[in-house]
Amino acid sequence: MAEATWKSRLRVVLVGTTHPGNIGAAARAMKTMGLERLYLVAPERFPCAEATARAAGADDLLQAAVCCDSLVEALADCAWAVGTSARSRHIAWPTLTPEGCAQQAIACASEGEVALVFGRERAGLSNAELDLCQAVVHIPTNPDFSSLNLASAVQILAYELSRAGAEEPVETPARESAASVEEMERFYVHLEEVLLAIRYLDPRAPKRLMRRMRRLYGRARPLESEVSILRGILTSTLHQISR
Ligand code: SAH
Description:
Elements: H1 3-8, E1 10-15, H2 20-32, E2 37-41, H3 49-55, H4 59-64, E3 66-68, H5 71-75, E4 78-84, E5 95-96, H6 98-108, E6 113-118, H7 127-130, E7 135-137, H8 150-167, H9 181-197, H10 207-220, H11 224-241
Parallel strand pairs: 1-2, 1-6, 2-3, 4-6, 4-7, 5-7
Bound molecules: S-adenosyl-L-homocysteine.
């Protein structure tokens, strides 16, 4: 798909950033690779002179940055989101290489908004936050020292995107829209309700099954119309068992 199109549909989301300097440095990293859309989820200090200084001329991205209270809010309208992790063994989520992540992000941009999600300097992203993403990307590192500076991680993934975008040879035909994160969240709530009602899900240990369900449906990336069918099946199921 055209470079201007996928770039206009791609956002970088920084979650709970502690140091404003890292926000500025991330904006600079994005701008060098032609990315423009920055979302900030509950940053500790922003706006901030330190962020502007470290942006080194990319302060237009800071001015246009969208601030959100939660990651759900930042991803609500996204068709696809990828979380980043400094740790390589996140078995619960399909893990992509930086190159694979760039290719998939650009392909998914033909179906809607896409997001690259970065975590806190100290604690990274929580499991609940990773649950909102359809995949995880890990930048291969020294296994004994795997945590990059936040803005360095942004730089590497932004570079891979710009490389993959430049190589993209043909227009991908527009598909029907993939269901958004918000729609998928509503689906998971509904699914959990039904699984509890039919006693398939053990209410004392619900996490594991629901995470596996997220992995399955995240891989399938259903279209809006397909999620409507699934929701219809769930509604009928509840209706039947309550009779
Ligand atoms: N102790 C944290 C480290 C967070 S580093 C953890 O284990 O997750 C801050 C952020 O930089 C991470 O949340 C991630 O967004 C990014 N990051 C750092 N190193 C990375 C790597 N090797 N691969 C992908 N993202 C990385």
